[in-house]
Structure to design on (289 residues):
């Protein structure tokens, strides 16, 4: 269902397929799709790089067509402009720009079985703003801090976003879903991995203490640990290390983060979660929010 707004415009026009052609070009699209079947040879990665990330919940605010708000399906993946690198501004018929500390992230997609890169795969990422609010749900007229990237021949995808806030009951995190191709990324139900990226504690604490835009970050971070978080708590030490963003930079000018995402294509779909604390917003998405 198309999301409508008071200005009378649709939230998408030609949609994702047209977006893919326009942003990447037909030749590059065909090249990437061919790489899916041909495979890409690469030297084996380190042992850590091959720790498959576990499936996690998409949470209540995925905006990927798997849940609804006020009776309407919320699916940013069909909106024109969703394939982009800079996630800070809204796109299409939406408005507003997310204010926060700059965070540039580089994500490398791998096949966990062979430790080789996954070219031509689509990854959809989304996160909350500085105080824990999500576009399309908490902020209904914005769709910022959401976007799709297509992995290059080395499996690499780059995004520019902001350092996410810490809301009560959850460890600081970034959501993501991986799809076999851009064409497959029209619904969260088609993902080959749905998981979350953990932010490291030291840098999170520094950002929340130094930047007034994260007004509730220090308080909320002090109420949660990775061991008590209902998403990350049941993961192994190796999995936690694998899914924690590695950061360089500072809490004044911003950070650059890197992460390798190995995918086990034989893994059982779905998330095994610890019991949620009161008021947590990380659980399974409701049918109507």
């Amino acid at each position: 269902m198309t999301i409508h707004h008071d200005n009378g415009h649709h939230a998408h026009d030609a949609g994702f397929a047209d977006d893919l052609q326009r942003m990447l070009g037909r030749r590059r699209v065909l090249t990437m799709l061919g790489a899916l079947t041909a495979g890409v040879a690469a030297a084996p990665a380190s042992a850590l790089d091959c720790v498959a990330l576990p499936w996690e919940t998409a949470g209540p605010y995925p905006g990927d067509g798997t849940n609804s708000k006020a009776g309407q399906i919320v699916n940013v993946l069909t909106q024109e402009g969703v394939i982009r690198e800079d996630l800070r501004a809204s796109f299409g018929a939406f408005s507003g720009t997310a204010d926060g500390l700059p965070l540039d992230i580089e994500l490398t997609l791998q096949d966990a079985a062979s430790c080789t890169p996954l070219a031509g795969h689509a990854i959809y990422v989304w996160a909350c703003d500085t105080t824990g609010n999500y576009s399309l749900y908490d902020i209904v007229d914005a769709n910022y801090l959401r976007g799709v990237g297509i992995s290059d021949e080395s499996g690499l995808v780059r995004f520019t976003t902001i350092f996410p806030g810490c809301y009560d009951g959850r460890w600081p995190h970034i959501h993501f879903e991986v799809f076999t191709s851009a064409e497959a990324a029209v619904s969260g139900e088609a993902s080959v991995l749905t998981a979350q990226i953990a932010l490291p504690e030291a840098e999170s604490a520094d950002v929340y203490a130094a930047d007034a835009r994260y007004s509730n970050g220090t308080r909320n971070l002090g109420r949660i640990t990775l061991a008590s978080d209902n998403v990350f708590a049941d993961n192994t030490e190796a999995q936690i290390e694998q899914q924690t963003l590695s950061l360089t930079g500072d809490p004044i000018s911003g950070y650059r983060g890197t992460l390798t995402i190995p995918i086990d294509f034989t893994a059982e779909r779905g998330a095994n979660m610890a019991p949620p604390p009161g008021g947590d917003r990380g659980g399974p998405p409701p049918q109507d929010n």
